[in-house]
From TrEMBL:
This is Cytosine methyltransferase. In the N-terminal section; belongs to the transposase 2 family. In the C-terminal section; belongs to the transposase 35 family. PANTHER family: RNA-GUIDED DNA ENDONUCLEASE INSQ-RELATED, TRANSPOSASE. Residues 306-372 form the Cas12f1-like TNB domain. It comes from Marinobacter lutaoensis.
Amino acid sequence: MQRLQAFKYELRPDGQQERQMRRFAGSCRFVYNKGLALQKERYERGEKKLGYAGLCKLLTEWRNSAETAWLADAPVHPLQQALKDLERAYSNFFAKRADFPRFKKKGQRDSFRYPDPKQIKLDQGNSRIFLPKLGWLRYRNSREVLGTVRNVTVSQSCGKWFVSIQTEREVEQPVPQATTAVGIDMGVIRFATLSDGTFYAPLNSFKRHETALRKAQQAMSRKTKFSNNWKKAKARVQRIHSRIGNARRDFLHKTSTAISQNHAMVCIEDLQVRNISRSAAGTTEQPGRNVRAKSGLNKSILDQGWFEFRRQLDYKLAWQGGWLVAVPPQNTSRSCPCCGHVSADNRQTQARFACVECGFEENADVVGAINVLRAGHARFACEVSDAVGSPAAGTHRSDSGAAQCHP
């Protein structure tokens, strides 16, 4: 089977290379914004939007124009990739997978991508990589790049430049080493509770740095905007945000790796994080209730990184030959695993479950994980039966393939 994998490293450019990368990222941002403005103008005039081929023809005109001749200094392929990203953003909007594309701002996710592997040279022995119009760049070689290079993305974050090398390689069809199945109940007090009784305590990286971040933001607000002191204060705020994100990603990677290596099938709730963490402020006519408490809860939920955790579990289990099964979260914390009685009275406190029908008592998160595991077994059995009944069907790892099964 083909495995796509990205390897990310910190670059060590010299001054000239760093200035060039800033110019290239700015050129890609300019092309993206110019294309988006053109598409919006055509829409307002009632004209059909331009496709990727039409935008590339305009890009050639922009590069040859006297007003934007500086675009010719940047490599053409990254500029074309910016237009391809715009086309993908439009497609996601019309497919109702994302909001309408927004204009890019300087300093926010500055990046550019080289799609042609023939123009890229990788010298791992000397920890350097060759990129068009940048030459050889050194990078911090922390691990070996496996597979054939497909494309390279250069990005900037918190004043540092990084290179992400996407590769493709052939691997044997994985067979899971573990033989157990487990259900997971996500929470705030406990980040993840497993059906076997073990749990992972939350990291709460934002909460740990919240005081330092608040002081840094207050200091930044007192500076004159765009002054040198304001830029220094802004860099300090960015460093704290970067530290929070790095700590969260490290925790999620370690936790998802441990679970995917120790279990062949993982059942998880199909949580809609955007809906769960929606603001309770309401409107002027219908103001919300308990807004302050809900705001604190939303902050704690978003601090956990539930969506990223599920994404990492999905591909890591696939690499191990396992399965991730998503089940509806309704009544998983209200159903008794012994008698099956469903009632809100079964969970009178946040941490304790006590069935009013049979008297069964257990930690509420463990009960939720057990119910998730049982629902996952039933859903997986439906998927397998569908695959056996239809020669063209396959076993799915998501909730979409078993929409007709209701455990």
